[in-house]
Amino acid sequence: xxxxxxxxxxxxxxxxxxxxxxxxxxxxxxxxxxxxxxxxxxxxxxxxxxxxxxxxxxxxxxxxxxxxxxxxxxxxxxxxxxxxxxxxxxxxxxxxxxxxxxxxxxxxxxxxxxxxxxxxxxxxxxxxxxxxxxxxxxxxxxxxxx
Length: 146
Description:
Layout: H1 2-18, H2 22-25, H3 33-39, E1 48-55, E2 58-64, E3 70-73, E4 83-88, E5 92-97, E6 105-108, E7 121-122, E8 128-129, H4 131-136
Antiparallel strand pairs: 1-2, 2-3, 4-5, 5-6, 7-8
């Protein structure tokens, strides 16, 4: 009986010593992160990819918000509280959800300037112009230009 107790205590000690620290570090009173993901609604980013500039390994994405404000973003930056730029390529970007709740999202540029997303492009607050006219106006933004 003594040998059996010693063997059980040794086995218990070894199993506890080789178990990972992940169980010890988790707070049992805090809900797991999976619950946060269940409460988060699936929302795609509202901005548009208007271009990618730079060299291989150092690309920047030109993203335009729904308000018409554009900005260059680098890999790893977060344009809003939900999405982060994870990969930038010459003609596309990949976004991942910040909390890992949603699947990654890939945004691609169009093939050429004549590829149509909409019939008209908003150039300013009050004016609406056609894509052919937008090419000749220096301050207008045309989607799909490489």
